Structures are given as structure tokens and as C-alpha cells.
Amino acid sequence: MASPIAVVLLSGGLDSATTAAIAVAEGFDVAALTLRYGQRHGAELEAAARVAEALGIARRLVLDVDLRPIGGSALTADIAVPKDRPADTLGGDIPSTYVPARNTIFLSLALAWAEVLGARDIFIGANAVDYSGYPDCRPEYLHAFERLAQLATRAGSEGGRFTIHAPLLALSKAGIIARGSELGLDYGTTVSCYDPDTAGAACGRCDACQLRRRGFEESGIADPTRYRS
Questions:
Q1: In 3D, which of 121, 40, 108, 25 has the Cα closest to residue 73?
Q2: Cα separation of 109 and 153, whole Å?
Q3: Are 172 and 215 in contact (CB under 8 A)?
Q4: Is the pLDDT of residue 115 over 90?
Q5: Which CATH number do you get for residue 47?
Q6: Residue 167: which residues within 8 A CB-CB, separation 6 or more?
Q7: 92 is a domain residue
Q8: Per the domain annotation, does 224 fall within a domain?
Q9: Structural domain range at position 154
Q10: Residue 227 domain-assigned?
């Protein structure tokens, strides 16, 4: 019997890589979707390819959806990436790295591909514990999108049911790293930094780098990240 297909949003970061590893471990035939959305660096796209190869994911789609003309984010416009923010403030507000409606756009594209592939499962690496304050990472949002998927598709109207999986939702960053390590995931292949250099080395100062570094420290697992000196 063939394994069920699941579309996994794979950005190349720590969370999405762990999510992909979990989907593979759960027996899904993973179709990895990566978005080139005008983000300020290509390092995470290269990381997504490395992660897919390491996990044995053969079915992979990279889509171009340029969000730069919309702007409004430090990741897609000429806005400085916030750095050196106090650790106790992370997640307390919506930072400038929030990309307007990004997860809605990404999940919609994942839903479209899932419908074509005959898949009814979509995985996203959203996290509501150690996250940077993004409203589209909340469980309420994911439940709402799951309901939308039933109403907005031919498959849903014909009785099919889509499930949005967010296996990291209630995990701390340390918990995510521990889970991925249990599955043999090499985090050295991933890129989380919002502002890496041209060689892909992490800045070590943005919100993503701070959360990642703290996660490795709290998990007791060696941090393989290449930081700029």
C-alpha cells in the first residue's frame, strides 16, 4: 500500500526541517514546497535543498511568489532587521520581520498543490511557544485555515478533509531541537538567520539567531550553526 502524500512547507530553517523530518518519520510520502518570495537572502533556499536531500525527499517544488512589491517587512523591503533585542522581549510584540499574510499565502499554495497531488495532509513548522510574535503562528489561525480548506476546494466540497499539521506548535525551541536530534536531523544543514552573510554565516544577533542559540543551550546539544565572528 502506498504511503499517503503530505505537502510540507520547507523553508530551510530549523523549524521547517524538523517538521519535514517528523512527517517522514510518520510514514508520509513528503512533497516539499519551498517559496522564493523575495526574501533578502538565498541561503535558506540552499538550505531547503540540503535538508530535502538529507531526508530523502525526492518530490520537491520551488515556487516564485515575489512579495517585494508589497513590502512592509524587514525580510522583503529596505527595512533594517532588528538585532540585539533583549531576550525577554521576544514574542512580546509583532516585529518588523513579520511578512504580511505570509503563512496564509504559503498555506494556500500548499493547499493547491495538495489538492492536485491527492494529498489531504499539510505540514507547517509554526510554533506558538518560542516564536517571534507572528500572529499567523497561533493555533487559532491554523484551525481557521483548516476550516477554510474544506470550504475553498473541490476536494473539500466532495467530502475530502484536509488536516493542517503543526507538530511543533506547543514545543519550546529546545524541545524542537531535541526532537529533531532524536530523528537524526543534522541542524548544520539549516539556516535560521534573518540576515546571514553571502556565505550563509548567521549574524548571531537577530531574533531568529537568539532563539536558535538559546534553544541549543537549553537542550544541551552542541550548536552547529556557523556564526559570523
A1: 40
A2: 12
A3: yes
A4: yes
A5: 3.40.50.620
A6: 19, 22, 123
A7: yes
A8: no
A9: 5-219
A10: no
